[in-house]
Amino acid sequence: MEDYPLLTGVHAIPPALLDLRPSATIDAHLLHPPPVTTGSPKNIWFFWHSGYAHMHPYTQRTVRAWHRRFSKQGWTVRVLDRHPGSPGNIAHFLDVHDATLFPRAFRENTLTGAYARQHTSDLVRWPLLLRYGGVYADVGMMQIGDLDALWNCTVGDADSPFEVLSYSPGGEKLYSLTNYFLAAMPGNALFERCHRLLLTLWAAEGGKTSTDGMHASPLLKGVPLMGGEHTIIEADGTFIGKEETSRLLTDYIIQGQVASAVMGLVDEQDGWDGPAYCVEHVYALNFMVGSQYINELTAWDGQKAFDLMSLPVPKEGEKESDDQRGAREIVEGCLTRSFGFKLAHGLILRVNKVTLGSLWRDNPGSDVVPGTYAAWLRHGIEHWTQDAVPERLELSLIPPSRIGRLLGETEQQ
């Protein structure tokens, strides 16, 4: 095992609380997810369309680290899929033909578009959390902070007012959450309304097969579009301006737009006051430092992040270079200040071209080369935890973005 320096504010997890069995043994467990135990909401859900065995090695390492860290504290990690015959097929956990759970395109397996697989995973997270509770995370979500400790003093504590855990990218002007990390008990009031609204958007025009155009729904009125500062230059030189890029990003992350709409909605007939709910019941985590710190320190330059993390840590007696100092600041900052880190993929690659996640994917094993800063980060994530849980962002009570019925004048048919 590499001898990396333990940092202030971080302590080693006792070996008895870690699953240190060989990776092949853990993989065999992850390939056969057990049924949910009645009354146990300590579920950690992932989804990969073709199953854990077909995930990229660096995302397998990420999921494996979740299991090593939290399984002995009562958490069950499951990677679900839609692969025929797979023990992890979501049909073993939810009725994939139920129209109250999934839109027609999911039920009939007719999702279209370049991001159909991402939107398939979007469609499973609220149904899983509403039925079973726990945490849903993307396979690219590296968990750093002590999830069990934060859960136990918030959502998992019956005396706590907090019912939802997520990162909050909207600041003080917009209620929002990130769909790459969601946590709640079964039947959560916010997620139940979010799910109904999302299904309604998918049911438009007789049943949509992609999210194209969903940003324009009047049910999302009052919520600003996403990514207003971004542009896209395609590989063939085609330029896509800010307005069209914003529409593309909003359609791509339509689940986040739906969440913001419900969080900002006041539906008096339903007894729903979204702003009040957010202030009282959402434990909002810092977005940038909490889950995007590497991007903040590298100005979202994926190549720079990859190059720094690939550097070797100086051996004893060697002088630290400027780049090594920058890499060290990344690792030390993440391990001491971040609750997690989200490796980005998908549409963001049309904006930024490469990300740390895409380069780890395209260069297998580059995230665990012994003696590198990447390997130091991986080691810290698996074997250390922070001394304290992250503080909650205090959400201010802001005016509702929309007042009216969740689904408009008529309920979904």
UniProtKB/TrEMBL annotation:
Domain of life: Eukaryota
Gene3D superfamilies: 3.90.550.20
Xref: Pfam families: Caps_synth
InterPro entries recorded: AfumC-like_glycosyl_Trfase, Nucleotide-diphossugar_trans
GO MF annotation: an example: glycosyltransferase activity
Protein name: Capsule polysaccharide biosynthesis protein
The organism of origin for this protein: Staphylotrichum tortipilum
Lineage: Eukaryota, Fungi, Dikarya, Ascomycota, Pezizomycotina
